[in-house]
Amino acid sequence: MRILDLTEFNYRAISRQRMRSTMLLIAIAIGVLAINLLTGIGEGGKQFVLGEFDVLGKNVLIVIPGKKETTGGMPPLTGETTRDLTLGDAEAILRLPNVSAVAPLIPGEVEISAGALSRNALTFGTSAAFFSIRQLSVAQGRALPQTAMDDARPVCVIGSKLRRELFGNGRVLGQWLRAGDRRFRVIGVIQDRGQSMGFDMSDAIVIPVASAQTLFNTEGLFRIFVEVRALETMDTSRQRIIDLLRERHDGEEDVTLITQDSLLSAFTDILDTMTLAVAGIAGISMLVAGILIMNVTLISVSQRTREIGLLKALGTPARTVRLIFLSEAALIALVGGLAGLAISELALLGAHWVYPSVPFATPNWARAGSLLIAIATALLFAALPAQKAAKMAPVDALLDKKAGQG
Amino acid sequence: MIELQQLCRNFQVGDQSVHALDHLDLVIDQGEYLSVMGPSGSGKSTLLNMLGLLDRPTSGEYLFNGRATSTLTEEQSATLRREHIGFVFQSYHLVPRLTARENIELPMVLASVPGKKRKQAVDEILTRLDLTDRAEHVPNQLSGGQRQRVAIGRAILMRPQLLLADEPTGNLDSKSGQEVIRLLEELNGEGITLLVVTHDEAMGSRASRRLHMVDGKIARDWETGNR
Q: Which of A61, A211, B77, B216 could form a disulfide with B72 if both were Cys (CB 3.0 to 4.6 A apart)?
C-alpha cells in the first residue's frame, strides 16, 4: 500500500471513531506536553542558574564572614563569635601567592540625587578588581581607579539605567551626584549586560570600598571575591586563605569559602533530581496512553473484523493488515504528540514572557524524544491487537456475527 | 484452470469431526458458468472459500492454473487472490465509511496501483455498471441492488479469471436480483469463470453446468445445455 493511500485510509478510519480517537489524542498530547513542559522549565532554570554563575569565573572564591557549624557542640557563651571581615583581611589575602586579584564588597541602598532628581539605588563599595572578576566593562569613561583599598576617593561608576534617569541624555562624565550625605564624581558608566547574580547592574552605583565604609558607617565586609591565578591551585589557595584568616582571627575558623563548583554541584543535584521526576511523570503518562492505545486498537480490530476479512479476501497479505492497524495508532500518536508539543511551546513562550530573564525552552532532544516515545509507545501497545488482526482467518473474519452488515 | 483432488475439509465441533468437504474431485475449465446448490450444511460455502483460497484443505490438493496451492505461503495465496480471484458476497461487504468509488477502488489501493491508472479503471467500471452518478455516495445511501453492483465492480476491478459469488441475490428483490444476474452472466460472456452458490432454483438453472452437493460430496454434476 502506498504511504499516502495508507494515511488516507487511516485518517478515514480514525475520523469515523471521533470520540475514541479524541480520547487517545488527548492522552498522548498530555504525555508529550508533560515531557516538554517539564524539561523546558527544568532546562530554563538550569540555563538561568548556570548563566548566573558563569559570570563568576571558575577560578573565583567567595569569602563569607561567619561559619555555619553543623557538627553540634556547645554553643559559644558569648553568643557572637564571628569577627568582621576587614580590609586588612582582604589586603592580606591579596599578598598570598597565586592570588591575582581581590575585590571586597559592601552592598547597600542609599538615596542618589543629581540636581533635582533623586532615587534609591543599589550601591556597591568595592575595588577596581571587582570589574574584572565580575566581568563588567564600562561603556563610557573608566572603571574605579587602581588604588589602595583604604583610599576613600569620591568617585563612582553608575549603571546605564541610573544614568538615563538622573542625567537623561546629557553629559555625565565629570558630573557630581549625591549619595546619602556624600558627594561623588561620575567617572564611568557600566556596560549593560542584564542581571548578574540577581542584581541589576544597570540600576546600581559602584564606589570605592573605603567610601562605602564611611557612607554606611561599617567596618565589616559583606564578601571578599578572590581570583586565583591558576585553576589547579584552587584547593591549595582555598586552604591558605582559611589558614590565613584563622591566624588573623585569633585562631578561630569563622569564615566560609564558596567556589563556583560547590555551588553548581548543589544546583546540578537538584536539577538532576528534577529531571528524574520528569522522566517518571512522562513514563507514567505514556504508560497510561499506551494501555489506552492497546484497548482502543483491540476494540477497533474487533469492530472491524468483517473489514479485515474483506481486506484479506481482496488479497491483502497479513503484514499489510498489521501495517494498517499499526500506522493508525502511530498516526494518532503523531498528531497527539504534535498537539502536545505545540501547547507546550506556547506555554513556555508565555512563561518566558512573564519571566523574561529565564530562558525557558525545551531542548531539541526532548522535543524529538517525546515524539519518538509517543510513537514508539503507540507501536508497542498496538502491536498485539495488530497482530491479532493480521492472524485472523479470512473465512471467520468475513462471517463475524458481532458487527453489522456493510 | 481449477482441479480439486480428493479434497477434504474437516471441522472440529466438540468431540466430533465434521466433514464439510469429503474427498472431493472437481475440474473447472476457464470460462465455465457453474451454479452450486444443495441443502444447508452440504459444504457449498466451504467449497467456495476453498476455491477462493480463503480456507485451507485438511487433506487433498487444489491446483490453481496447474499450481499446487497447499504449499503456498500466506502472502503467496494473498497475491493469487488479489490478481486472479474476485468475490461477491450476499451481504456485499462494503466498507461503510468509503464512497462507492472508493469501495470499488480499494483492491487497487491495496495493491499500490498509481492514482491515475486507478481513476481510469474505476471510471470505466462506474460507467459500465451505471453507477457514475452514485459514485460519491456511501453504502448507506445506496439501494441493495446498487450496493451489490458496487461489490461486483470491486470484484472485477483487477480483471480476475475467477469470480466467486455466494448467494449474490440473497438480499435483493427480484428485479435487482435479475439485474445482478444479468451483469454476472455478461461478465462470464467476456471470459470470466463464474461460480455461483445459490438457493434459488431459477437462478441455479441458468448456469451451463450445475453441481448439487450433499454432505460434503458432489451428488450430481451435469451440463444443462444452456447457451
A: B77
| CB–CB contact B109 A1 (8 Å) | yes
Please name the member of B82, B94, B98 whose beta carbon is closest to the beta carbon of A315. Answer: B82
Q: Which cell numbers hold the place of A334? A: 503523531
* CA dihedral sign, ordered B101, B102, B104, B110: positive
The nearest alpha carbon in chain B to A15 belongs to: B97
Question: How far is the first Cα of chain B from the last one, in angstroms, to the nearest whole number?
Answer: 21
> pLDDT band for position A79 (50/70/90)?
very low
Strand pairing category for B67-68 and B33-37 = unpaired
Domains along the sequence of chain B with CATH? 30-53+71-223 (3.40.50.300)
ipTM of the complex: 0.93
Considering only CB atoms, A320 lies closest to which of B87, B93, B110, namely B110
Residue B78 to residue A9, Cβ atoms within 8 A: no
| Phi and psi based region of residue B215 (left: phi greater than 0; alpha: psi -120 to 50; beta: remaining) | left
Residue A18 Cα, gap to closest chain B Cα (Å): 13
> Which residue type is seen at A271?
L
List for chain A the helix, strand, coil content (%; round to 5): 55, 20, 25
Residues B44-89 have pLDDT tens digits of: 999 999 999 999 999 999 999 999 999 999 999 999 999 999 999 9
| Helices vs strands, H then E, count in chain A | 12, 12
Report the residue of A3, A8, A9, A314 to disrupt the B interface, i.e. the one with the largest count of B CBs within 10 Å: A314
* Cβ neighbours for A180, distance < 8 A, ≥ 6 positions apart: A110, A111, A215
Locate the domains of chain A by residue range: 3-53+264-398, 104-227
Q: Residue A358 and residue A372: Cα distance in Å, rounded?
A: 27
